[in-house]
Structures are given as structure tokens and as C-alpha cells.
Specification:
The protein is mostly beta strands. 13% of the residues lie in helices and 36% in strands. The strands form 16 sheets. Strands 5-10-14-13-12-11 form a 6-stranded mixed β-barrel. A hairpin with a 2-residue loop joins strand 38 and strand 39. The longest helix is centred in the C-terminal third of the chain and has 35 residues. The termini are far apart.
């Protein structure tokens, strides 16, 4: 039996069937809840996944619902100009959240148009409009509110319904704004995390571009102006450059800017240029798209454009009657056409282009204002006209929901009617040709991957097609020079059916040892590569998997970490102490006993150290005569990857020096003197106690197993580099037991892009020690008494000698003469 309950623990659905012991996934698949989920009309809220071992592996989208509440007289409506076609915008990362603009009001949905509410605004520092409503041109969703383009100004509506003007305080002009464009792909979910915060929205004037996001109270940054555009295009400074359209690019870091440049600015010298900005690298590139258009053949605006998800810049550009395409970094370009004509106004009976829909499967639907629909697959240049679906006068617009389904939204002035549009059925019934292949599958099931030094990433792809169709798999990408790529293809032919199975292996295998400019080399050989794999002939009726493009982050996975493996049989015991003492006295000799500090920088007083059990965890309890070699494991988060076989170094966090190593450089088979902490610190400057670990690392590591002519050095020194496969161990003080807090750092330059460090603690035991404090005090007391005794004895002895000498005649000859 399956029961479903709501947030208040009330049972909302019960399904009892299939007696016996069937799998839970069978119960869910056959229940009315699964049917409701598939109809996309019941379950709404946050994204959840049924991925438990007892639940079938499926996901349904759930949206959170917000009540707008009833409007009141103090609030003002937002409308389109009278007689305008419907306008729709949706939230990039969650399509179920959308806004529908009409000439009678603006409506918002949080659940894919199952329910809508009118948006009204409370004015904050804004004079009320004379007409009683605001005329909206465009809008963009932010996480903290909604931006509206009203006349030539930007306004923001907060969740409290308050509307205020975004202007100079947010670093954009208070007026003169020409356009507003939000991001079209969710960079948070579809792109590896990097140190660059991508913009969420673009705002532009006639010749200035501003990018902004939700942080810092919707602050904007000016990215381009007239001077920069003329410099990029290499135009004279007296040329006029005007922004005509802006759209986010094929890759999440990219942004396309379409500009019109002219000198006289008539039909004889106007030119269109596409410039692509990369937010990740902060660079601009001029595209070759439209470069072959002659000034007299430049189409008239206004223009709109959409970029297609791809490893190379690919886009659709259109005005009221023409659609241009550029695929694979302009290697394929031209006009979308049907029956030899590219003028969609003529093909539709005199209407204009109202809406262009582009989904993840590369389906392109062009809706004309009179509800004539055209269709093609991205990558194709020939349009097909779909069957009539609505009357020419029907006020409607397409909506692509969170599940990738295309819906028709009909609005009659007071009521909204959404219903599913069967795109696949309509396409196949409108065209007689069949797909060029039977199936195309691949294993790229995530939008992005990480690859570290020495690692390999492998994908496979399978395409099955009728014989003599000549199908191939095309692979291309952005910054694939960061990786080495190997492909292997297997071909089979049976019963006039061919199959090609391609395996693509990526790996990063560069040698960073002895690199003179290690940091600069890392910067050049790390980054994000984008890889795409598609059939060479897609076909208008072919099904394409949504995930054809993957991003490969060549660099450090933020979740990667190392841990010291606790050997089997060495239990973890939490003790009751919170601090411990490290002897800090400076070296001194008393009688025959020598005392010295175990600290690198001796102190007059003992050093009391707080022990953080939560941070350091259990100690390794090791007998003082037993050498110890820590074993390191590599993890991604809490997922074990492998044991670390790279060189690493250790240093005691609080400066203890009463430990050593059992192997000398000669015993480690060094061919010249190896690096040591002493030599590396001597080569560094401005190091504090806390930054001592920066003195030595992969950036300046030099192996001792390479011969340097004429330089051998002292090979009798301890070898301070450890490796799980080596014969070098840590040895302990034979004079006293103690607690050591060790920092560990991977030293091998070829192991990882990450600065891998960890901490482990050791407590040695077994040394028979005595309390020297009483001995020292006794010796000092005895010594004091002896010194004072000697001084007193010397004083009285001196007095006695003086008195004796005072009664002796110093001139005995005089006494004899007197006699």
C-alpha cells in the first residue's frame, strides 16, 4: 500500500494494489500519483528526486507557491501598449515561474500557469502615472525581485510589491535605456563553479552596456561604451556605433552584442557587427557573422537574437520578416527559408515574426503574429510550415515549461487558457521525410565534470542508422587544447542497419616538475573546456538528447581533500584534556644536566596549547621508539577516490623540532642534496610562523634524483620528503613524550591542481621521564648556599689574615738597631 501525505501530515492519496511483495517502484509507477505527475498538473514545488533504492529513479518538478494577494486602490497595474501581442518572460533557473504581459494587465505564475495572479505595484519615490497604469516594454527576473523596462527607465519590484527606480545609485543611467535582457541558461546548475560571478541581467543604452546581478543591492557594472566598440571594431573615432540587440551566449560565460556602425548613417554605409564578450576571461571577440553583408543589403531592425546551447557560438537572429542563422562559430550561416524564399512575411500572408521558441532538443518554432507556425531543427536551414492550430485573431503565445513541454497560452482579455501543444506529432504530420538515423545515444549525463592532473574522463556515443546514409558523429569544442583527446570507433553492419560506437577519452597529462614559472604555467593549462557531440546531419524529424554539450573543468575540484588514514587496529579515543604544554625553556647547563627547548623559536616560558578536538580529532598514540609513516587518502567531499602515492611534506604547527626522519638523503638514493625546511625557509622572505607552509610546495619543488653537475651537497642530512611507497619514516624524541600537531601538504607538482593539505596529531608514549623542576630547584638552592658559604668563609678568612698581618713589624732591621 502506498500513502501520500501533505506538509500537515494529512493523507491525500492512498493506493492499494498488487498483492504480495512487489517492488516499491512498481507501486509508484502504477498509482494515480505517477499519472498525475506525468500529466504535469498536480505536484508542484521544489525539485525533488525519487532516487532511493526503494523508489523508482524519476524526478518531477515542484514549485513553491506565493500569494500575491488582492490588489487595492493604492496599487498601479502594469500593461503593454494597447493592441500589442502577448509578451512572456520566465525565470531562467525555473521555468514554472513566469510573467505574462498583456495590454490589460500583467500576470505572474509560480506553478507553470496552473494559476495566475495580476501584478500590481506600490510606488516608492515615483510619481503616479497620469494614465493610471505603467506601460512596460520588457522585464527580467532576479532572485530578489523583477526588473521592468518602463519607457526608457529601469524599475525594480520587490517581493513586497514596492516599485522603485534603478538608476545612478545602482550605476546605470536614470533614463535612455534601450533594452533589458536576462540570462537564458541557469549558470549555477549548468556550469562548474569558478571564482567569477556571472551577471544575471544585461541593460543597455544606445552605446553603453551594463551587467548586473542580485548581489550588492542590484549593482551594475559598465562593461562597454562607444570608445570600446570603435576600438574592437577598428573603426575611426568619428563613427557612430549603436547597440541593437543583446543576448546571453552559447556558453554561460558569453554574451553577444549586436551593434550597428555607420558614418553617414544612411542605407549606403550601415554595417552590422556581432561582438562576443566572455565574462570568465573579461575579453571581447569580433565574430565573423554578418561580415559578408554589404552595406546596401543590411536588413532593417529592430532585431532580436537567441543563442543556441553549443560549444561554439551558434545563434538565430531575426527582425520582423527575416531569420538569420550562424552555427558552429559561423562555419555554417545564412537565412532560414522555405520553398526558396526567406521572407517569412510573404510566406505567412503578410504577418510579422512574433515569437521564436528554442528548446534544449534544438527544436526551433517560429510563431507569426497571425498564428502561422514554422519549424526546423537548429543546424538545419530549411523551415517547414506546421498545420494551422488557432484562428488568426486568437491572442496567444507559446510557453516552454519546466519539463520541456510546449504549451499554448490563449488570453481573451479576462481568462487564460493553457493547453499542451503536441510539437512532435505536428512536425511528423507536416513532413514526409524520416530521420536520417534510428537512434543516437551517449553517456554525457551531467552538464559538467572535473578533471585533475593525471586523471581520465571517458564518454561513449552510439548512432544507429540505415545503410548508405553516411552518418558520422561530429565532435568539437572550446579550449580542448587543455586536454589530450583519444577516440576509438567501432563499426558494425547487419541486415542493412549500421551502427557506430565511438569512445572518447580525455586526460590531462602534462609535466610540471622543474617548471620555472609554475604559477603562470598552471594558469595557462587550467580552465574550463566545452565539448559537444552531434550527428553530422540532424534532420528535422530526429530526436536529439538534451545533454549534447558538457563543460570540463580542468583544475581543482573545490570538494577535493586529503585525509590521513587511520591504520587498522589503532583505535580512536577521545581524551579529557583540552590543552597541553610544550617545554619552552632556552638551552642551559646546570652541573652535568643539559636542558634545551624543543621549539624552533625558544621561549622563556613553557608554551600552553589549546587542543581543538572538533578540528583535529583523535590522536595517533604511538610508542616513542616506533617510526611512523602517515598514509594519505584522496576524497571528493566524503567519497573516497584512491590512496595518495605522491610525495608530501610535514611540519609541526606549533614549531616543535624534537622529531626527525630515519632516512638520510644518501639512504633515499638522492643524487644531490635534497630540499629541506631549513633551506626553503632561508630562500623565502617575510614568512611568519603561520605562513611557514608557503615556503615549500609544488611551485618550487625540485627533485634530488636528477644529477646537477658539480653540485652534490651534504647527503648525510635527514631526508624530509615522505611517500607511502618509500622507506622514510618519522622518528620521535627519545628524551620525552609529547603531542605533535602536524600539517601535511602534497609536494608533487604532477599530482593535483588543488593545494591539498590536512592535519593530523600524534601523541608519543613510553619515555621514562622524571620531574626536573624539583631537581633544578634543589640544585639552585644548594648552589646558592654553597656560593654564600664560600663568600662568608672568604670574608672571615680575609679578616683573620688581615689581623695577623697588622701585628707583624714590617721593618725588623730597625728593631735590631734600637737594641
Amino acid at each position: 500500500m502506498q500513502e501520500v501525505c501533505d506538509a500537515n501530515n494529512y493523507i491525500t492519496d492512498v493506493y492499494a494494489n498488487h498483492p504480495g511483495s512487489p517492488h516499491d517502484s512498481l507501486i509508484l509507477a502504477n498509482s494515480q500519483m505517477a499519472a498525475a505527475f506525468q500529466r504535469d498538473d498536480s505536484l508542484r514545488g521544489k525539485p525533488i528526486n525519487f532516487q532511493d533504492c526503494f523508489i523508482m529513479s524519476r524526478s518531477w518538478s515542484i514549485s513553491t507557491y506565493y500569494e500575491e494577494g488582492q490588489p487595492n486602490d493604492s496599487e498601479f497595474p502594469l500593461i503593454l501598449p494597447r493592441g500589442s501581442s502577448l509578451l512572456l518572460t520566465w525565470y531562467t533557473c525555473f521555468f514554472d515561474k513566469a510573467i505574462l504581459f498583456t495590454d490589460s494587465g500583467t500576470f505572474i505564475t509560480h506553478n507553470g500557469f496552473l494559476k495566475i495572479e495580476e501584478i500590481r505595484v506600490v510606488l516608492v519615490g515615483i510619481p503616479p502615472p497620469a494614465s493610471g497604469s505603467f506601460t512596460v516594454t520588457d522585464a527580467a527576473f532576479l532572485e530578489t525581485g523583477i526588473l521592468f523596462l518602463i519607457e526608457d527607465r529601469i524599475y525594480k519590484r520587490e517581493s513586497t510589491r514596492e516599485l522603485w527606480q534603478v538608476g545612478e545609485a545602482q550605476n546605470i543611467p536614470a533614463s535612455g535605456v534601450q533594452g533589458l535582457q536576462s540570462r537564458t541558461s541557469c549558470s549555477t546548475n549548468n556550469y562548474p563553479s569558478i571564482n567569477v560571478e556571472f551577471s544575471k541581467v544585461a541593460v543597455w543604452t544606445a552605446n553603453e552596456l551594463y551587467l548586473g546581478n542580485d548581489k550588492n543591492k542590484t549593482k551594475f557594472v559598465k562593461k562597454a561604451d562607444l570608445a570600446l566598440f570603435t576600438k574592437i571594431l577598428r573603426l575611426p573615432s568619428n563613427y557612430s556605433v549603436t547597440i541593437t540587440a543583446v543576448a546571453y551566449g552559447s556558453r554561460p560565460p558569453e554574451l553577444g552584442v549586436l551593434v550597428e556602425a555607420c558614418y553617414v548613417c544612411d542605407s549606403t554605409d550601415k554595417r552590422l557587427f556581432l561582438i562576443i564578450y566572455n565574462e570568465e576571461t573579461d575579453t571581447w571577440i569580433r565574430s565573423a557573422f554578418l561580415a559578408k553583408l554589404k552595406p546596401h543589403s543590411v536588413p532593417q531592425g529592430p532585431f532580436k537574437m537567441k543563442f543556441i546551447l553549443s560549444a561554439w557560438p551558434s545563434l538565430l537572429l531575426w527582425n520582423d520578416e527575416l531569420m538569420f542563422y550562424s552555427y558552429k562559430n559561423n562555419s555554417e550561416y545564412g537565412n532560414l527559408h522555405m520553398s526558396g524564399s526567406s521572407n517569412l512575411r510573404l510566406l505567412s500572408g503578410g504577418s510579422r515574426i512574433h515569437q521564436v521558441i528554442l528548446d534544449d532538443s534544438w527544436n526551433v518554432v517560429v510563431k507569426m503574429a497571425n498564428n502561422v507556425f514554422f519549424y526546423c531543427k537548429a543546424g538545419m536551414d530549411e523551415l517547414i510550415r506546421l498545420h494551422s492550430w488557432e484562428e488568426k485573431s486568437t491572442n496567444m503565445i507559446f510557453y516552454l515549461n519546466n519539463n520541456g513541454h510546449l504549451l499554448v497560452l490563449k488570453f481573451n482579455g479576462s481568462k487564460l487558457e493553457p493547453h499542451r501543444y503536441p510539437l512532435d506529432m505536428e512536425v511528423k504530420s507536416s513532413i514526409s521525410t524520416v530521420c536520417t538515423y534510428l537512434t543516437f545515444q551517449h553517456s554525457m549525463n551531467k552538464p559538467w565534470y572535473f578533471i585533475d592532473k593525471g586523471e581520465q574522463l571517458e564518454f561513449w556515443a552510439l548512432i544507429i542508422y540505415p545503410e548508405n546514409m553516411g552518418m558520422n558523429l561530429q565532435t568539437f569544442g572550446y579550449r580542448l587544447d587543455l586536454l589530450q583527446m583519444k577516440t576509438r570507433t567501432q563499426f558494425e553492419n547487419a541486415y542493412q542497419i549500421c551502427s557506430k560506437n565511438m569512445t572518447i577519452a580525455f586526460h590531462h597529462d602534462r609535466d610540471y616538475i622543474n617548471a620555472e614559472k609554475y604559477t603562470e604555467l598552471i594558469s595557462q593549462t587550467s580552465g574550463i573546456a566545452t565539448f559537444e557531440m552531434v550527428p553530422n546531419v540532424p534532420g528535422n524529424t530526429c530526436d536529439l538528447p538534451a545533454d549534447r554539450v558538457v563543460h570540463i573543468h580542468v583544475g581543482c575540484n573545490p570538494k577535493r581533500n586529503i585525509r590521513v588514514h587511520r591504520p587498522w587496529g589503532l583505535p580512536c579515543k577521545i581524551m579529557n584534556f583540552t590543552n597541553y604544554t610544550i617545554p619552552g625553556w632556552k638551552q642551559r647547563n646546570i652541573i652535568l644536566i643539559s636542558f634545551r627547548s624543543v621549539l624552533q623559536i625558544p621561549t622563556e616560558q613553557d608554551l600552553v596549547v589549546d587542543y581543538d578536538w572538533e578540528k583535529y580529532g583523535c590522536l595517533f598514540n604511538i610508542y616513542y621508539t616506533q617510526p611512523f609513516l602517515p598514509s594519505l587518502d584522496l576524497y571528493d567531499g566524503d567519497v573516497f577516490l584512491k590512496s595518495v602515492d605522491a610525495n608530501f611534506i610535514i611540519w609541526e604547527q606549533h614549531g616543535r623540532t624534537d622529531f626527525s626522519y630515519n632516512a638520510s638523503m644518501e639512504e633515499a638514493y638522492c643524487l644531490r642534496e635534497a630540499q629541506t625546511w631549513k633551506s626553503m625557509i632561508a630562500m623565502s622572505s617575510n614568512l611568519s610562523k603561520k605562513s611557514i607552509g608557503e615556503a615549500w610546495g609544488p611551485n618550487n619543488y625540485r627533485t634530488c634524483f636528477e644529477v646537477t653537475p658539480g653540485i652534490f651537497g651534504d647527503l648525510g642530512q635527514p631526508y624530509e620528503i615522505l611517500n607511502r611507497s618509500g622507506n622514510n619514516f618519522i622518528t620521535w624524541s627519545q628524551e620525552q613524550s609529547g603531542i605533535y600537531v602536524f600539517n601535511v601538504k602534497i609536494l608533487d607538482p604532477n599530482f593535483s591542481f588543488c593545494d591539498l593539505r590536512t592535519v593530523f596529531t600524534v601523541q608519543t608514549y613510553g619515555v621514562l621521564t622524571s620531574d626536573h623542576s624539583m631537581l633544578i630547584a634543589t640544585i639552585e638552592t644548594i648552589f646558592t648556599f654553597v656560593v654564600f658559604g664560600i663568600l662568608i668563609y672568604s670574608y672571615f678568612r680575609y679578616v683573620k689574615i688581615f689581623n695577623t698581618m697588622s701585628v707583624i713589624n714590617p721593618n725588623p732591621d730597625e728593631k735590631d738597631k734600637q737594641q
